[in-house]
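pasting DUF7344 domain-containing protein for the record, 286 residues
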Amino acid sequence: MTTHEARNDLVLAPKTSPVEDIERVLVQGEFTEEWNVLVVAYGWDHRSLKKTWHDRIEERPAAFGAISVGTGSDSSSGAAPISRSGCDITAAVRNPTDLAELGTTISLFLDDWTEGTTLVCFHSLECLIDRVGSRAAFRFLHVLTRRLAGIDAISQFSLDPSATDDRIVRTLEPLFDSVHEPEDPTPTITPETAFDVLRDSRRQHVLRYIYERDGSVPLSALVKRIAHHEPDADADRIEISMHHSHLPKLEDAGLISVGETHVTGCPAIEALEPHLELVADHDRPD
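structre below
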C-alpha cells in the first residue's frame, strides 16, 4: 500500500473507481475519520461517489468533498451527509476544459480545510489529458502538485497507461514524488457468483458488451444493446431495470463500477471470459 512519505503519488493502473483509488492510500489501522477527503472525478456524480464510499470504506471522514467534472449536473440535492461533522460538500465543473475553474474550485476546499490531514484523489489523468491536451495538463498539474505539497496534503493521481501515450506518461512522471504500478492480482470470482450474475440474459449482454470494449461504456449504449436483443421490450423499462436491478447486482459482485453516465468494467470481469465467449457465439448468426 501507499505510505504517506509519498505526498504526490502517481499510480499507473487500469481505470477503476475514485474510491478504489482512495483505498490504495489507506494504511491499515489508519482512522480516516480524522481526514479531510476531496475527490476530483470525471464522469462521476456526488451521489455515486458517496454510495461507493459507503460500500467499500464505510468509515466517515471529518469532511468529504467531491468535485464532479463534466457531468453536466450536480445531483447532490437531498443527499444525506456522509461525514461525521456534516461537512459534506459538492461542486460541479461542468466544462471539463475550464482548468481555471477547476483549479479555483480545488483551492476553495484546500483553503477551507485548515485542520487535520487532507487527502486528494484525482480521477483520472487520462480524462484530463483527453479534454485539454498533454501540454495544458502538464502546466495544470505542475501548479496543482506544488500547491498540494505546500499544504502537506496527501494526493493520489490515477492514470491508465493503456489509454495514454507512453511519451506523455514519462513526461508527467517527474511532477510526482512517487510513481508506481500496483501488482494486478489474478481476477477471481466464485462459481456461485458467476452463476448468479449470468443466469439473466440482460446481465450476460451487459457484461459481454463491457468486456468487448475493455473500458468505460455509456449507460445509453447498454440500453440500446439490450433493446437490440429484445426488440419487443420497452426502452424505458429496460433502463429502469438496469438502474434498479442489474447494474447494482453486477457492481455488488465487483464486476463493474457505475458512474453517472458510464459503466466501467473491473478486472474481475476477465474471470468470466469463457462464459462471455459463449454469449458471443450465441449472438453470431448461423
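Strands lie at 8-12, 35-42, 63-69, 87-93, 117-123, 154-159, 178-180, 216-218, 256-258, 262-265.
The chain has eleven helices and ten strands.
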